[in-house]
Amino acid sequence: MKKYVAEPFRIKMVETIKMTTKEEREKSMAEAHYNMFGLRGEDVYIDLLTDSGTNAMSDTQWSGVMRGDEAYAGGNSYYKLVEDGRDIFGYEFIQPVHQGRAAEKVLFPILLNSDKVAISNTFFDTTRAHVELAGARAIDCVVEEAKQPSLRVKFKGNMDVEKLEKLINEYGAEKVGVIVMTITNNSAGGQPVSIANMREVSKIAKKYGIHLCIDAARFAENAFFIKRDEEEFKDVSIKDITREMFSYADTFTMSAKKDAIVNMGGLIGIKEDAELYQKVKGNTISFEGFITYGGLSGRDLESLSIGLYEGLDEEYLKYRNGQMEYLAGLLDEAGIEYQSPVGGHGVFIDAAKMLPHLKYYEYPGHALAVELYLEAGIRTCDIGSFMLGNDPDTKEQLESDFEFTRLAIPRRVYTQSHLDIIAEALINIKKRASEVPGYRITWEPEILRHFQAHVEPIK
What we know:
It is built from 16 helices and 14 strands. By secondary structure, the protein is α/β, with parallel strands linked by helices. It folds into 2 domains: 22-51 and 313-457, Alpha-Beta Complex (Aspartate Aminotransferase, domain 1); 60-310, Type I PLP-dependent aspartate aminotransferase-like (Major domain) (Aspartate Aminotransferase, domain 2, 3-Layer(aba) Sandwich), CATH 3.40.640. It has a 7-stranded mixed β-sheet with strand order 2-8-7-6-5-3-4, sandwiched between helices. Strands 9-12-11 form a 3-stranded antiparallel β-sheet. Strands 1-10 form a two-stranded parallel ribbon. Helix 7 (195-208) links the parallel strand 5 and strand 6 (212-215). Helix 4 (100-111) packs across helix 10 and helix 14 (364-376) crosses helix 16 (416-431).
């Protein structure tokens, strides 16, 4: 059995959670129209819906909350954040926004329009939506190894560079508005991207004069994998690896609600393009508020600055990854397949393998998520065809390369005992997997349907 890595902190405050009965959970699920986002938080025992904004801030961050400068314009907390962002990422311009999708809303319309396409190692749901809202088309270009969950190879989040260059030549370089490198690659199972791959993609982007942007939500976890698994960087600090990663791109967008370990916040980074920064400032004022607060309070800016450094701590990152390794080890013993090796922010169960009787249009990833809640009050979500949605042109259901149920582990929140309960629930479901029903959509909105769709079991 994989040894549990002890927490590099001690707990000073707790939040009560409750275990509901099976009958109560069945009622709650039906009232939520079988949509995991429709459940009330108080009816969830272990919440793995997302690791975004669900993290536990440190005593240092909470003390920063009290120091936040709430000036509308020119607050000290803003200047501190800009200085710290420059120190960590090496970018001249740092613009706060209220979260990651706000960063995309501000930046992408400047780079994209209806004549453009955007290419990524894999777009996550909100990023894909903002590409489409800008009028462009989003194209995924992950390495083929990522599409084989049981295959244990390093850096399954990488861009397929050969395919990337083919796509550029197929569409024409002038049609490619942006290349997005998602680190770690969330939709591919939290899989990391290597520095070697970043270099190759950057070389191709420069060759064709295409803008390269990093989706940096889990940059510190990606740097941890590079230090662990890329020989060139085994003796390099996490901060210096981060600087190296970001040196290859032109911009970055970030949801700070992940690796900066805050409950709200985001960033846009621009390496040196002052003209682009001026356009970003204009959109920030229009969509987010004045540039020196970007939709955030001063206390948010202050805790974000502190969290950026805390997320780089190597002992913390060893513990963080150790939680994933421990849970994955329990699943290995039970013969439950997941995207392997385990990713940085969660364990992505291969729902297609666990529920082979369900077709992609019966949403196996979502079906397993519902079953986990009914079994033990554990809330997770689908990363598969249910999330992917419909073709923007034909409106037909798209088939995802993956049918995952994502167990996203919040930072500094759950203990070994909680992970044991999660594994036990999955083992129990596996015993009756053939009885798990598929699902169909009874109502859906046009954009990001999985947040609101009404679903029902197929009887």
